Amino acid sequence: MAKILVTGGLGFIGSHTVVELINSGYEPIIVDDLSNSDPKIMDQLAKIIGYKPPFYKLDLCDEQGTKELAKKEPDIAGIIHFAAFKAVGESVQQPIKYYRNNFYSLLNILNAYDGKPVNFVFSSSCTVYGQPDVLPVTESAPVKTAESPYGNTKQIAEEMLKDMQTAGSSYKVISLRYFNPVGAHSSALIGELPIGVPQNLVPFITQTAIGKREKITVFGDDYSTLDGSCIRDYIHVVDLAKAHVAALKLMEAETFKGYDVFNIGTGTGSSVLEVIRAFEQSTGQKLNYQIGPRRGGDIEQVWGDVNKSKNILKWQTELDLDTMMQSAWEWEKYIAQNPL
Hey, which residues are catalytic here? Predict the structure, then answer.
């Protein structure tokens, strides 16, 4: 089995991707510094897949430690790089924290395996588009000034990877521009597990429904959308995890050369208020929410054209918004009854 290094592999998207890698015949090796994840997720993974994958506790900003990792695991076929901070609002408040972590971790892992034929999947984001002029946004849309330091780290990282390819790197690289991952595994054994106050909408919804939070604040109802709230393309995390497997398989083909980028979403936008209503309707749980001021760094509306992913990556989503909400709620109930 081909070994795949999964950085940030105990996080929300990383843990679900580990499951899908195993389902597809790969051997994942997990690297995580546990700064935004819980080591008990390893036990949860074992319940799903039947064993605990190899795990290294490591901050990839540690250059020497990352080089030592490459010596211990020299024969990997691919890297899926999730190890980055990802909260838009926090990045506006603490930009240096984001620039340091998101750049150093990427540079160190690239340098550690430099010269080896590695298939590299980069966890990018639709935030690279800024506020698009045309919707749905395609991969060829002009990249505009980022609305947040987080978005800027993804823009610059993509440029770094593309420049590396132009210079003749041994890596093959695919950047996956995610839209908004939500939901949880159908087993309800893994899901989004924010540390402290959630920075994303859906865990705030589920924590409010379970009683951990008093209410939800909708950041703005005066945008130029049908109900005034921001619009995003929400994608089930299991569908998203499968996109990483599809990216690896594409790069394994002799015909794939160099670098490419793909939108990873449903191709449909939903507003914040629509997501709240979808949760209430699919779970029967009423939510306490209020309208607040706009939040710095937020884009008004964005959703993606996913035809390139369908035609070239041979991937598309299968799970709808109701399934996303139901699975996220089942996960929230599970961890309420089985605290990690």
Answer: 150
